[in-house]
Design a protein that fits this description.
By secondary structure, the protein is an alpha+beta fold. It has a single domain, classed as Double-stranded beta-helix. It has 6 helices and 18 strands. The strands form 5 sheets. Strands 2, 3, 4, 6, 15 and 18 form a 6-stranded antiparallel beta sheet that branches. α3 packs across α4 and α3 crosses α6. The longest helix has 11 residues. It is globular, with a radius of gyration of 18 Å. It starts with a strand and ends in a 28-residue tail after the last strand.
Length: 267
């Protein structure tokens, strides 16, 4: 199923990436878990914006300032766990699934687009959850069973695709590479999960200075293969403003467009 386009302007877009736009960003994260941005044309601007909304969490591949340069590093990207630093396709995933407490926020900004390909594919985990609740409720129940997934190498983390929180809220954690293992209980339902992700996926092409900030406990992201010297910057971190655990599942029969239009950004 072809992914629908995600406009980088409109309901999820924040036109002011300076201090004055921080409240609009937080409002969008609380309601929709995503904000799109533009005009971040340099590493300095990306770092400044990231620092206003999150406390950066260092990563194995991050640079001294806490940002990670995402670009093709050649054959080294063929090593286990380094596919994000290659030019190949990346399947839908959340960041740092193999650690006990994955960072809440992820920012990705493009500095240089690919010559061809390199589109981002974004999927709202709330929509995936809703799709499964309607079309494959047994799959949803299995995917929420504790300890049915293991992410990472020998030092990884045992978890599940959907985690239930008090008050009926839920969060998502997923990777789909060689560092993901699933119990037989879940394995039979992985095609249902793949179909639900495809049904909810949104496609976007990032131009220079454009990017997206997502709730890493709600949104999955992916990438198409590319050619050329594509360069992006990524920031991972904890929110500077308190966010509720996960997301509130969508009531059966309700579409996202049926919700009141609260907390929209400027621009």
């Amino acid at each position: 199923m072809p992914a629908l386009s995600l406009p980088l302007s409109g309901a999820h877009h924040v036109g002011d990436t300076g201090p004055g736009g921080t409240r609009a960003v937080v409002d969008l994260l609380r309601t929709d878990g995503i904000a799109t941005v533009g005009g971040l044309d340099s590493r300095t601007e990306v770092l400044a914006f990231a620092g206003r909304v999150m406390t950066l969490v260092p990563h194995r591949d991050s640079d001294a300032d806490g940002l990670t340069t995402i670009q093709d590093i050649g054959r080294r990207s063929l090593r286990l766990g380094l596919s994000g630093l290659g030019a190949g396709e990346l399947l839908a995933h959340t960041e740092r699934s193999s650690v006990p407490w994955p960072p809440r926020l992820m920012l990705l900004v493009c500095l240089r687009p690919a010559d061809r390909g390199g589109e981002v594919l974004l999927t709202d985990g709330r929509a995936v959850h809703a799709h499964l609740a309607v079309h494959a409720p047994q799959a949803l129940e299995a995917l929420a069973q504790p300890g049915t997934a293991f992410y990472g190498d020998g030092g990884g983390h045992t978890a599940q695709v959907f985690t239930r929180h008090p008050g009926g809220r839920a969060s998502v954690r997923l990777r789909q590479d060689a560092l993901a293992q699933f119990s037989p209980l879940v394995r039979r339902y992985l095609p249902d999960l793949t179909h639900a992700i495809g049904a909810a996926q949104r496609r976007a092409f990032l131009g220079p200075g454009q990017g997206y900030l997502i709730d890493n406990h709600r949104w999955l992201h992916a990438r198409t293969a590319f050619t050329g010297r594509r360069v992006c910057l990524r920031a991972l971190g904890t929110s500077r403003t308190l966010l509720p655990d996960g997301f509130a599942p969508q009531p059966v029969g309700q579409k996202d467009g049926d919700r009141p239009n609260h907390g929209r950004g400027t621009g």
